[in-house]
Design goal:
Number of helices: 6
Oligomer: single chain
Radius of gyration: 15 Å
């Protein structure tokens, strides 16, 4: 698969936003996961730096996010990052191609791996959707 341009990842996030009828900030990635029947659970991180994990057992998915980070925003970003792996074309096939049931992530734009970078970009676009953000900003702008 060819490397995706950033705007393509944003378009996919926009499709998910539209599918889930998200029209206001704060976007709740936990709700998106729940609507997709993806279980989300906090876990005690076993690897330094590991922020989250996408699991696939059969046709069921789960997202686990680390208790190591106290920031609610970072937990939300981590869940949105794992949703990126779930929603972006080719990610599931690549991440689970060897029959493994778990993919561990270090979210936060720190990886050189293109799948991790795409998932980070998806998370950013999902959590701060351009259309919704512009609408809110327009309401707050004097004029």
């Amino acid at each position: 698969m060819a490397i995706r341009e950033f705007w393509q990842v944003g378009v996919r996030a926009g499709e998910v936003i539209e599918q889930h009828k998200i029209t206001a900030l704060l976007v709740d990635p936990f709700s998106v996961a729940k609507n997709e029947n993806i279980l989300c659970l906090e876990f005690e991180a076993i690897a330094p730096g590991m922020s989250g994990c996408l699991m696939k057992v059969g046709d069921k998915f789960g997202i686990f996010y680390s208790d190591r980070f106290s920031s609610d925003g970072f937990r939300r970003f981590t869940v949105a990052h794992e949703l990126g792996h779930y929603f972006l074309p080719g990610h599931i096939e690549y991440l689970f191609s060897q029959g493994n049931e778990r993919h561990e992530s270090e979210s936060g734009f720190i990886s050189d791996d293109r799948y991790e970078r795409e998932a980070d970009s998806f998370a950013a676009a999902l959590l701060m959707p351009e259309e919704v953000f512009r609408s809110v900003a327009a309401l707050l702008t004097p004029g």
